[in-house]
UniProtKB/TrEMBL annotation:
Keywords: 4Fe-4S, Cytoplasm, Iron, Iron-sulfur, Metal-binding, Pyridine nucleotide biosynthesis, Transferase
UniProt source species: Duganella fentianensis
GO CC term, one of those recorded: cytosol
Keyword rRNA processing listed: no
Family note: Belongs to the quinolinate synthase family. Type 1 subfamily.
Annotated localization: Cytoplasm
Domain of life where this protein originates: Bacteria
The protein's name: Quinolinate synthase
EC number(s) from the headed UniProt entry: 2.5.1.72
Gene Ontology terms for molecular function: 4 iron, 4 sulfur cluster binding; metal ion binding; quinolinate synthetase A activity
Length: 323
């Protein structure tokens, strides 16, 4: 604990010295979330991270999250320096949707409006008409559906089919999934709910359909934290990465939060309920990054400007829609 607090103090000092701003996701180490909040950065969902990074005047942003979040920041602000504690922090959705295969899929269906989830590479975003995050995907597809558009959706099949069911839109789905959320189990969740009949169930829409079906609230990380605060209940079962519990407990003190069941227990199923790539962000690699950033570009995000110029259109459409 003592070492942690001295690392945190050092990070605060370095952020100030280097005039860098820390942007953290709710799934990263609790200390990195607290640091972002305490130093004038932000801790939030993917949509807010993108907006915050774009609008902040700092020349350097440190993104504690996964690679697509750093890339989105770079695409929106090519003039800023975007650094990440570990550039190998990827996402199974991004890995499962290679740009060349995705392009061929789009080319085979030229009559469809291409909507991609934020959890994709810059090259995939460059091929898309729209990029969406979990907080606004439903509204954007509903809007496109009302205009009579047919949709090609990638890569998360669970989020895609959830949106399809809700909106009735004609959606052709890429078959990707998140290795964390894919592990939540509907039958076990029902049994847990029977033990806690008063509990409300909060679910991230990357979860399988039989888990989403049991939800009281389905939403992005920010949306389900808000639900934990605002719903009049004392107990919640939470189906998303357990990194979120830190903020939920802080935002709704006195309430009880239970992790939704996964295939194995945490001893046998290491990636269950915690994203291994989000976990690559820590206090030590953040200190190292800040100490070396003037002499090294090892941790810097680069996006091919030609790709960035295309990808910015699909991201900006979402941000304009959200505004
Ligand atoms: P949010 O946009 O809801 O924060 O989700 C990002 C993510 O990677 C979920 O697994
Ligand atoms: Fe990707 Fe899933 Fe990790 Fe989110 S939790 S970054 S969707 S692998």
């Amino acid at each position: 604990a003592e070492q942690r607090s001295s690392l945190k103090a050092r990070i605060k000092q370095l952020l100030k010295e280097k005039q860098a701003v820390l942007v953290s996701h709710y799934y990263v180490d609790a200390d990195l979330q607290d640091l972002a909040e305490e130093t004038g950065g932000c801790v939030s969902d993917s949509l807010e991270m993108a907006r915050f990074g774009r609008d902040h005047s700092a020349k350097t942003l440190i993104v504690a999250g996964v690679r697509f979040m750093g890339e989105t920041a770079k695409i929106l602000s090519p003039e800023k320096r975007i650094l990440m504690p570990d550039l190998d922090a990827t996402c199974s959705l991004d890995l499962g949707c290679p740009a060349d295969e995705f392009t061929a899929f789009c080319d085979a269906h030229p009559d469809r409006t291409v909507v991609v989830y934020a959890n994709t590479s810059a090259a995939v975003k460059a091929r898309a008409d729209w990029m969406v995050t979990s907080s606004i995907g439903l509204d954007i597809v509903a809007h496109l559906h009302a205009q009579g558009k047919k949709i090609l959706w990638a890569p998360d099949k669970h989020l895609g089919s959830y949106i399809q069911k809700k909106t009735g839109a004609d959606m052709l789905l890429w078959q990707g999934s998140c290795l964390v959320h894919d592990e939540f189990k509907g039958v076990e969740l029902e049994l847990l709910k029977a033990q806690y009949p008063e509990a409300k169930i909060l679910v991230h829409p990357e979860s399988p359909a039989n888990v989403v079906a049991l939800a009281d609230v389905v939403g992005s990380t920010t949306q389900i934290i808000d639900a934990a605060v605002n719903l009049p209940a004392d107990t919640f079962i939470v189906a998303t990465d357990n990194g979120i519990l830190h903020k939920m407990r802080a935002a709704a003190p006195g309430k009880r939060f239970i992790e939704a069941p996964t295939a194995g227990n945490s001893a046998t199923c290491k990636s269950c309920a915690h994203c291994p790539w989000m976990a690559m962000n820590g206090l030590q690699n953040l200190v190292d990054l800040l100490e070396n950033m003037d002499n090294s570009s090892a941790n810097e995000i680069h996006v091919d400007p030609a790709i960035g110029q295309k990808a910015v259109t699909s991201i900006t459409r979402m941000l304009d829609f959200a505004a």
